[in-house]
Automatic annotation (TrEMBL):
This is Organic cation transporter protein isoform X3. One of its GO terms (molecular function) is transmembrane transporter activity. It is found in: Membrane. GO terms for cellular component: membrane. The gene is LOC117138134. It comes from Drosophila mauritiana. Its main location: membrane. CDD domains: MFS_SLC22.
């Protein structure tokens, strides 16, 4: 059993040597890397699109006695007279969403006529009683249209349905993460990568064409399954063909693309209808069908499957595009070690020592379970992964609840991940893994707690002159809270980047991929489900 492992290790080492000779990040790698990064933009946007497609807009009851039928104003001056609600310490009124005061019929002679448009000066306190009633027509604070209006999901009793969209989405990520990894190992990185992109696009289009809430949930689940495989497979394909000295840089840049993809959702201000937004995120990735001819298969996967001839073709093509030559000695040595590895593998099979990949995974599980030290490491790693997921997605999902323009806030909360990844890179190089991880988590904790205290100390958001725009204008934003929120997101992003590296390096080499690719990310997605529920609560 030891011979194949040694042979495989040598093959990997020699492949890195070949990458150095043909160019660690030459024209061939740069072209493929850019192609691979483009669908990551749409995968990132799809991963959080439900924040806007299934978000709850600002609304209140429609008051036919006072509202103009075709030009109702959400924050009209008389709203506090006709609709119950709450006053902030700074004098800002937030109307109830689904209740209104019963009209005093003695003061509104034509109140039963829904087409009447009463002037503002007739809406006085004496025109309404203190009794409340439910309403079934609503006035919205913006032109945004989500599934709330589409299928009548207003009012508190339907809040669980909005939370359940996020739960279903992240459940799809759990399934997709495990499934795409297994299929990619079995059928090839490239083919499953392309399948995930096309599947994400088609199910996204189907989601935009949903006819009811149940069908929307079903296609949201399928869309998440496809979306979950795009980034990790792009990471593997993009990084595996890059030389050792450029590999760390390429992994960080891919995260930049992911952050920009999330921030693209901020442009949904120009696509206020949820169907239009979902189509805009789903149709463009279909162009990636051309990747079947443009993007090569992972050379390392081909070597692992003993498809040496195909791997050699890609290596020679890369050298040609990069205008580099491969020394005869290195290729000869590489081929000889490949033959040695194949011979050793055949000997193991003939001797009855061949172990299937699935069996190796179970052997890894048994070995870890039998070691208190490894079990302790895994327990700590799983806890950190779950905490990272809850905080990371919790901050992302609640970005739209910050004071100010929610589209701009969401874009900023996503874009702040770019300096977050850069900070992680700097921390890892200068302070080591433990200090980088602890420092990132501490930075996030301090700023998030501080933002909460600042909010409580001020009592409420700073209101604008127009109450209807109090949460939609930067002129009334609580800059300190927003800034602390952004720094907190920067810290948790840095922590996420560090924990990936920490997880890979803490485990023994033969168990590293099993933990890094299967167990810890699944616990991460489980934590994301909790964050989606907390988003509505």
């Amino acid at each position: 059993m030891s011979a194949p492992a040694a042979g495989a290790a040598s093959a990997v080492l020699d492949f890195d040597d070949i990458l150095v000779e043909i160019g660690e990040f030459g024209r061939f790698q740069r072209r493929n890397y850019l192609l691979i990064c483009l669908p990551v933009l749409f995968a990132a946007a799809n991963s959080l699109s439900y924040v806007f497609t299934a978000g709850s807009p600002t609304y209140r009851c429609y008051v036919p006695e006072c509202d103009k039928l075709d030009d109702a104003e959400y924050g009209a001056d008389w709203v506090s007279i006709a609709v119950p609600g709450s006053w902030s310490k700074r004098g800002h009124f937030t109307p109830s969403t689904c209740e209104r005061f019963v009209a005093n019929d003695g003061h509104f002679e034509s109140s039963s006529d829904p087409w009447s448009a009463w002037p503002l000066d007739q809406c006085f306190a004496e025109n309404f009683t203190t009794e409340t009633e439910r309403c079934h027509q609503f006035v919205y604070g913006s032109s945004e249209r989500t599934i709330v209006q589409q299928w009548g999901l207003q009012c508190p009793e339907n809040l669980w349905k909005m939370a359940f969209v996020g739960t279903v989405h992240f459940a799809g990520l759990v399934v997709g993460t495990a499934l795409s990894g297994y299929l990619a190992d079995r059928y090839g990185r490239k083919h499953i990568f392309l399948f995930c992109i096309v599947f994400m696009a088609l199910t996204g289009v189907a989601q935009a064409l949903s006819w009811d809430y149940i069908s929307f949930l079903f296609f949201a689940l399928l869309n998440a399954v496809g979306t979950s495989g795009v980034y990790p497979l792009a990471f593997i394909i993009g990084v595996e063909m890059v030389g050792p000295r450029k590999r760390e840089m390429s992994s960080i840049v891919l995260n930049y693309f992911y952050a920009v993809g999330e921030a693209l959702l901020g442009l949904s201000v120009f696509l206020p209808d949820w169907r239009q937004l979902q189509l805009a995120l789903s149709v463009p990735p279909l162009i990636c069908v051309a990747y079947f001819w443009l993007v090569p298969e992972s050379v390392r996967w081909l070597l692992a499957r003993n498809r040496r001839e195909q791997a050699g073709v890609i290596i020679r093509r890369a050298a040609k595009v990069n205008r580099r030559d491969i020394s005869v000695e290195l290729m000869a040595s590489f081929k000889q070690q490949e033959l040695d590895a194949e011979t050793s593998q055949e000997d193991d099979v003939e001797g009855g020592l061949h172990v299937q990949k699935d069996d190796k995974i179970w052997l890894a599980i048994k070995e870890v379970a039998g070691s208190p030290a490894l079990m302790g490491r895994y327990a700590i790693l799983l806890l950190i992964w779950a905490v990272n997921a809850i905080v990371y997605y919790g901050l992302s999902l609640n970005a739209t609840s910050l004071s100010g323009n929610k589209y701009l806030n969401f874009a900023l909360v996503c874009l702040v991940e770019i300096p977050g990844y850069s900070l992680a890179w700097l921390f890892l190089r200068r302070f080591g893994r433990r200090v980088a991880l602890s420092g990132s988590l501490l930075l996030c904790s301090i700023t998030c707690v501080a933002s909460g205290f600042v909010t409580l100390a001020q009592g409420d958001w700073i209101p604008c002159q127009n109450g209807a725009e109090s949460r939609h204008s930067w002129s009334c934003a609580n800059w300190l809270v927003v800034t602390l929120f952004l720094v907190g997101k920067l810290g948790i992003t840095s922590s996420f980047a560090v924990i990936y590296t920490f997880t890979a390096e803490m485990m023994p080499t033969e168990r590293r991929r099993w933990c890094d690719v299967h167990i810890c990310p699944l616990r991460c997605d489980a934590g994301s489900i909790c964050a989606s529920i907390g988003f509505v609560l």
